[in-house]
Amino acid sequence: MRIITVKGFSKTGKTTTVASLVSELKRRGYTVGTVKDIHFKNFEADTPGTDTYKHAAAGARRVTARGPKNTGIIMDERMTMDAILKYYKEDFVIIEGDCGVDCPTIITARTISDIEEKMCPEAIAVSGIIANDMQGQMISISPKSGREEKQLPVINGITEVEKMADMAEAVTKEKENKLSVELTIDGEEIWMVPFVKETLKNVVVGAVKALDGYEEGKEIVIKIKE
Description:
The chain is α/β, with parallel strands linked by helices. 31% of the residues lie in helices and 21% in strands. It has seven helices and eleven strands. The strands form four sheets. A five-stranded parallel β-sheet has the order 2-5-1-6-7. It has a two-stranded antiparallel ribbon with strand order 3-4. Strands 8-9 form a two-stranded antiparallel sheet. Helix 1 crosses helix 6. The radius of gyration is 20 Å and the shape is globular.
C-alpha cells in the first residue's frame, strides 16, 4: 500500500486535488482508497434520529448500515490512523487532512504564508488555489518552525494531474524500496502500514545499535518464543 497525504487550510483546494488524483490513479489501473480526517468538533458520522444513530445511542460500540449499493461502519470512538488503515487493501490510500502520518505530503494553499504554516519534512509539492497563478514554478519555503528551507514544485491538481500522479507514483515507490520490515507471528506475516514499519525499525535499531556486531545497513532478525 502506498500512502499520500493532502493537507492545507479550509477552502484551499484539498478535496479538488484529492478527487483529481484519485481519478488519475484509477485511470492508470490502481485501486484507490481515501480517508477524510475531520477536525470540526461538532462533526458526527451519523445523522441524529436515524435507526443507526439510535443503535449507537443505545450503547452499540460498532454499528453497520448495509444498503443495496454500499456499506457504512460507524465506531463510537476516534480511531488512530493506523487502526483505520488496517481496513484498507488498496494500492493507494490518499488521506485528506492534517493527520500527522509520516508519508509524502501535498500542501494546498492560497498564499505563501499558508504553505509556511503547513510545511513539514514530508512535503513533496504545493497545489490548490495558489497553483492558479504559480503553476509550474518552484517555491523556496522557510518554515516558521525554523526548519531548513525547502524547494517545492507548484502543480495544478486539475490541469497537471498527470504530473502530480507521476510524482505520487515515484515518491511512494522510492519509500517502499528504502524500507523492508517484516513481522511474523507463529509463521504468519502481520500486515503493517509504512509509518508503523518505520516506527518498528527505529525501535529495533535504537535497541541494538550499541551492541557489538551491529553494522548500519545490515539485516537484523529477532525471534521471540514464549
